[in-house]
Design goal:
12% strand; two-stranded antiparallel ribbon; alpha+beta; disordered N terminus; 2 strands; 4 helices; 45% helix
Amino acid sequence: MKNEKGSKAPNPETQDKDNHFVSQYKTVYQSFMKRPKTMLMVCVETGIMRENICRYVASMKEQEKIQVIRKGYDPHTGYIAEYYSTNGDLFTKSNVQQLNLFSNVI
C-alpha cells in the first residue's frame, strides 16, 4: 500500500508492535530505577517476559544506562543473581585517570 507521496505506508501491525516494545523498554528502565533488582524480580513485578527484559538490559548496557550494583540471592529462586540499577547515583565510577595512564606512551 502506498501513501499520497508514493512511498510505502508504514505497516500498522509493525508500528503497534514497535510501540509495544518501546513501552516495555521504558517500563523495565523505570523498574530498575526504583531500586536494584534482578531480571526475574522485574519480570514478576511488570509481567514482561524475562527474554525481553534480558534484551533490554543488553541494550541498556551498550548505552551505559544500567550497571550491576551487586550480586546476591534472588528471593524467587534462592540462587545468586546480579542486581541491576538504572539509577546513575548508584553506578560505580571507573577510574578514568588509571585508564589513561599509558595513553601518552608511544
